[in-house]
Design a protein that fits this description.
Elements lengths: L1 H22 L28 H11 L2 E6 L2 E6 L2 H9 L7 E2 L3 H7 L9 H17 L8 H17 L8 H16 L9 H16 L3 H8 L1 H4 L5 H25 L9 H11 L10 H32 L1 H14 L15 H14 L8 E2 L4 E3 L2 E3 L4 E4 L1 H5 L42 H18 E4 L12 E3 L2 E3 L6 E4 L1
Parallel strand pairs: 2-7
Antiparallel strand pairs: 1-2, 3-4, 4-7, 5-6, 8-11, 9-10
InterPro entries: Cyt_P450 (IPR001128), Cyt_P450_CS (IPR017972), Cyt_P450_E_grp-I (IPR002401), Cyt_P450_E_grp-I_CYP2A-like (IPR008067), Cyt_P450_sf (IPR036396), Cytochrome_P450_fam2 (IPR050182)
Keywords: Endoplasmic reticulum, Heme, Iron, Membrane, Metal-binding, Microsome, Monooxygenase, Oxidoreductase
Family: Belongs to the cytochrome P450 family.
């Protein structure tokens, strides 16, 4: 009996080894990495919600470029500035693909900009960037829209009369109005319930990405797609977001003037009319709805989170806040509105804003890429379509580029004369062909919001600076500021 059991155990182990080799195999030429399990790949090595941490630990053993498995699919992981730069910056076209993530495909169904590839991505991105530029994004013409929202927010803040409150909700609503004015041609009152429902759905789906069922779906979609679970709720939520945008589109269709586009939706509808006889056109209603949601998310989620986090950081480091306010007083004073023209005269403010974005590390892994063709990289052969994970955290905290990477230090972006200096490691918006299209808008918003708030108020916390905890909350693959309260005392 013992002999038979021993033989059975050996046979079982041998079968597992053969199965691993059969399912995963050693992909010819890929970098080495941790051994995967059948079906699950390397899922069990990602027990932490801080997904970037196990990836960094693995890089200590396998180097800055290694292979892990998402289910049966290999993914090449890039750690550190040099490896990420060589891929996204030095070979931008080859590494411009967007990895097909099963849980994303379950919701957006392959439409939109953020998670598409090929001609669809190229056409929609090119069109969207052109329209956004025409609508003033990245130009001075949008400055007044931002200032309008800033001052609406400031007026609300004044009504708090120095009492403690949580600013996150109001910042989020204010920032969302900037992108809404561009996308939908209107702003919404803070009490607008439909917009709040949309924001709640976006936030809920970010939280749901952390769910183990959702993570499992990415590893074994062929099985879980037939089963009930939280992954289906994520799809239902996204469908409600599409319905919200569809209502806005229908209203635009009723009042459309092809000679006078008011916003992004109008521009897309006009393009749909122009392309209606083209059977291969990408300008169709599903792409309009998903693209609008992609831009809306990119235009409000990261900026509002960054601003909320930034105020908390300034309360943690009052000497930085004081120096910021001194520069505002010197350059702008208190009698006029901050202007984008002031940026070039305010190097310390620019350095602080960059350091906030670096330090909070909003998307530690960025968004997953894939290679668009078979390519050679650092002596390895990466097949076409292979997942690529550029760990942006490893760039933003690379000690070769940032002297004290885990300290909040605006000096990372200042030269010896106190002037602003660029840092190659600043990839808060990613890099290469897939760099965030909302970068210019985000920079404008952060400057105008932060300077206006600090020009008008002093920040006060009920907690001593040394006791303020900056540990982030994790929401999906992103970070956001922990819940906190402050009081704003008007000057």
């Amino acid at each position: 009996m013992d002999w038979a059991q021993g033989l059975a155990s050996v046979a079982f182990v041998s079968l597992i080894i053969l199965l691993v080799r059969y399912v995963f195999g050693k992909k010819q030429g890929l970098p080495p990495g941790p051994t995967p399990l059948p079906l699950l790949g390397n899922l069990l090595q990602f027990k932490s919600r801080e997904t970037h941490k196990p990836l960094l630990e693995l890089s200590k053993k396998y180097g800055p470029v290694y292979t892990m498995y998402i289910g049966p699919q290999p993914a090449v992981v890039l750690c550190g500035y040099q490896a990420v730069k060589e891929a996204l910056v030095d070979q931008p076209e080859v590494f411009s693909g967007r990895a097909q993530v099963p849980i994303i495909d379950l919701s957006s169904a392959g439409y939109g900009i953020a998670f598409t590839n090929g001609e669809r991505w190229k056409e929609l991105r090119r069109f969207s960037l052109t329209v956004l530029r025409n609508l003033g994004v990245g130009k001075r013409s949008i400055e007044e829209r931002i200032q309008e929202e800033v001052y609406s927010l400031v007026e609300f803040f004044k009504e708090t009369q120095g009492s403690l409150f949580s600013p996150a909700f109001f910042i989020r609503r204010s920032i969302s109005n900037v992108i809404c004015s561009v996308m939908f041609g209107k702003r919404f009152e803070y009490t607008d319930q439909k917009l709040q429902t949309l924001l709640d759905l976006v936030e809920e789906n970010l939280r749901r990405v952390d769910n183990i069922w959702v993570q499992l779906y990415n590893f074994i979609p062929s099985i879980l797609k037939h089963l009930p679970g939280p992954h289906n709720k994520l799809r239902e939520n996204y469908q409600q977001q599409l319905e919200y945008v569809d209502e806005i589109v229908k209203l635009h269709e009723e009042t459309l003037d092809a000679d006078n586009p008011r916003d992004y939706v109008d521009a897309f509808l006009i393009k749909m009319q122009q392309e209606r006889k083209n059977p291969n056109t990408e300008f169709i209603k599903p792409n309009l709805l998903s693209s609008a949601l992609d831009i809306f998310f990119a235009g409000q989620e990261s900026t509002s989170s960054t601003l909320s986090y930034g105020l908390l950081i300034l309360m943690k480091y009052p000497h930085v806040k004081d120096k910021l306010q001194q520069e505002i007083e010197r350059v702008i004073g208190r009698s006029r509105k901050p202007s984008l023209e002031d940026r070039s005269k305010m190097p310390y403010t620019e350095a602080v804003i960059h350091e906030v974005m670096r330090f909070i590390d909003f998307l530690p892994l960025g968004a997953p890429h894939c290679v668009t063709e078979k390519t050679q990289f650092r002596g390895y052969t990466i097949p076409k379509g292979t997942f690529v994970i550029p760990v942006l955290h490893s760039v933003l905290f690379d000690p070769s580029l940032f002297k004290n990477p885990y300290d909040f230090d605006p000096g990372h972006f200042l030269d010896e004369n106190g002037m602003f200096k660029k840092n190659e490691g600043f990839m808060a918006f990613s890099a290469g062909k897939r760099i965030c299209p909302g970068e210019s808008l985000a920079r404008m918003e952060l400057f105008l919001y932060l300077t206006t708030i600090l020009q008008t108020f002093d920040l006060r916390s009920a907690t001593l600076p040394e006791d303020i905890d900056l540990s982030p909350e994790y929401s999906g693959l992103g970070k956001k500021a922990p819940a906190y309260q402050l009081s704003l005392v008007a000057y």
